[in-house]
Please model this.
Amino acid sequence: MGVPLAGSDDYDAIARDMAQQAGFAYGFVNLFLNEQTFVGLHQPAPGSGYVIVGRTMSREHGWCPEVMNRRRALPLPDVHASPRFSGNPVVDAVGIRSYFGAPLIHESGVVLGTVCVIDPERRPLRDATRIRDIVIDCGTQVMTHMTHPPAGPFRTTRQP
Model:
């Protein structure tokens, strides 16, 4: 299918742009392999006071497994507002308060992974649609990049 199996500068750029457009500390392009593998990763700089994450995580942790099962976007402006989603190990390990994710669905119908942003600050409900749309748009960029890789360096198409 032409999907990456490790970190990639192109997908790191998508994760960074997605996080910056949404105003979130972290952004991920996440493929579900033996574990969740962040082929695109944006996070705060070391020494910033934020938790620094690696490029992999258990397939059971976080909210991306729910997005994979739902096959549609999951906006959680405040993960503590839902008992179903507040008991996740990522809440305590990384201190996450808001999550927005969208599935990466290949043209064959296979869900490959997700794109998502997370942040230690909750978001007002009035911002939920805007942030959800940013994440969905970035998911579309990822799938386009996977199925039709550019000849030169990756350039994002959406402007903040």
